[in-house]
Protein 1
Amino acid sequence: MADPKGFLTTKRENAKHRPVFLRLKDWREVYEESTTAEFRAEAGQKQAGRCMDCGIPFCHQGCPLGNLIPEWNTLVWREDWKRAADRLHATNNFPEFTGTLCPAPCESACVLGINDDPVSIKRVEVSIVDRAWDEGWITPQVPATRTGKRVAVVGSGPAGLAAAQQLSRAGHDVVVFERADAVGGLLRYGIPEFKMEKARLDRRLAQMRAEGTEFRTGVDVGVDVTAAQLRAEFDAVVLAGGATAWRDLPIPGRELAGVHQAMEYLPPANRVAAGTLDRSPIHAEGKHVVVIGGGDTGADCVGTAHRQGAASVTQLEIMPKPPEARADANPWPTYPLLYRVTSAHEEGGERVYSVSTTEFVGDAGGAVRALRLAEVELVDGRFTPVAGSEREIPADLVTLAMGFVGPEKGALLADLGVDLDPRGNVARGQDFQTSVDGVFTAGDMGRGQSLIVWAIAEGRSAAAGVDAYLTQRSVLPRPIEPTDRPLV
Ligand SMILES: Cc1cc2nc3c(=O)[nH]c(=O)nc-3n(C[C@H](O)[C@H](O)[C@H](O)COP(=O)(O)OP(=O)(O)OC[C@H]3O[C@@H](n4cnc5c(N)ncnc54)[C@H](O)[C@@H]3O)c2cc1C
Ligand code: SF4
């Protein structure tokens, strides 16, 4: 156990954010501690000491990866950071991705959270991995023997990367195909630098390359490489192409200039932050920005618009404002649906709930100038406009952040002939294998729009399935089954 009295003597401390006026001047991570590893480590140790090492650690259940949270909390408290890093990496290939980006369902399931603030698990996680990188403990794990089997991974988001790393370490020759010009999936071109600096991604990719994983970027599989070529060249295939088909809003005025999908708006902003583009072609400077959709993607648009110097930022959400405390129907240890203030929301802007957009209003030049919305209420399970509540708000730039409907149904899936499930995702059975022998799937492509922690867990489990398929035995871990769902 960590500090036996830690939960009584130490209060929870969240990671501190840099002052808003400073962080809006750059794209760097919002966290203050990222510049001072020692402070981060010290605070992390105190926070780890709050862990009660419960007989039944519900946090294990909350974390899709099954992270060994009480074990590494104890090791951190004892200042045995090296072993803590080993225990962390036993279940998670990329703790710096989850340590910065995960919504931490483990913390919602922490027993201390029943009547106090839960252990700041995510913060301890990132403290451990930061320390491990600083100390040089994270090195390539090159397999002692190679199997001679070849595996293609299509898509380089967290699911594809986790699958590729597991399979390379099992001795297979792995090639990751990515249609974008750089590796990382949504970690690279969706999630902004201020949430996770891409240097964190790049040093992992260097580790993976040194372990033998090959990356081929700018290759749209199904177009530049056919499904038949893929099957001929590789012994197994992992489809990890994500759920990139976005939901649209087909209302009057949708065709106006200045109305964009979030994933049209965010990638060029990320390129500017990376220094590969001078100025985004979709820029918020001096504009009234309206973001439609209240989730993670919407918050990323809000933070990006602030950094670009928007005149105003308004985020619209059709759902009612969530409660500040758990509702009775949403008890511990389930993931609480609460009102959350992300770092982007701390930076300003207005959040408007229970509204639906009815029309985009254009100017004489065909550009959007306003947005017409109406308040809504639930009538017979449907959101229905409230009579007389319609109003216009100024809008020179609108981003649609309304989620994703599943994987793109392009040549890749059609030519491989994989079955889809009733929700339009790639259907997978035991071991994450699709309906086609030797073709597996992991991440959002099979699960639908989800989270990084689930993508890594799926990548690890699918890798175990592929390894068993190729070698008839596998010692790789399987943190989840295809049917596992979050605790909600
Ligand atoms: C803007 C945004 C912010 C988010 N923020 C968070 C967050 O803070 N925390 C969190 O937990 N989750 C967040 N998410 C969700 C999270 O990013 C995804 O759940 C996760 O990235 C899914 O991983 P994946 O590997 O399945 O797919 P992706 O990350 O989508 O990667 C799929 C990759 O496959 C490539 N690809 C597709 N088809 C082909 C093809 N035919 N040939 C070659 N390559 C192909 C794509 O180009 C892409 O790079 C966010 C999502 C978005 C959109
Ligand atoms: S990966 Fe997410 S759920 Fe798991 S321990 Fe880390 S923050 Fe918690």
Protein 2
Amino acid sequence: MALIHCEECGREISEHAFACPRCGYPRRRSAPMSRGIRILLAVFVFMLVAMFGFALTAAWLMRKPVDIELPQRSLSSAAVSVG
Ligand SMILES: [Zn+2]
């Protein structure tokens, strides 16, 4: 657990504290924290895009054999009805 200095009184407080326990000064978001949130958001968006692409590829791969099968069935049934 890292310690940071309070912006108001200069006392060392926990980086996870919402406010300084001595003077009650509310902490602002530090730069490393916002950067971590940005990285998390980037990873989240990347996972969403990757999952979306994987789902599209899986759907396309699963749909392809069905499209090939259907004309064969209709052709064979048509041949039976004609013949
Ligand atoms: Zn303080």
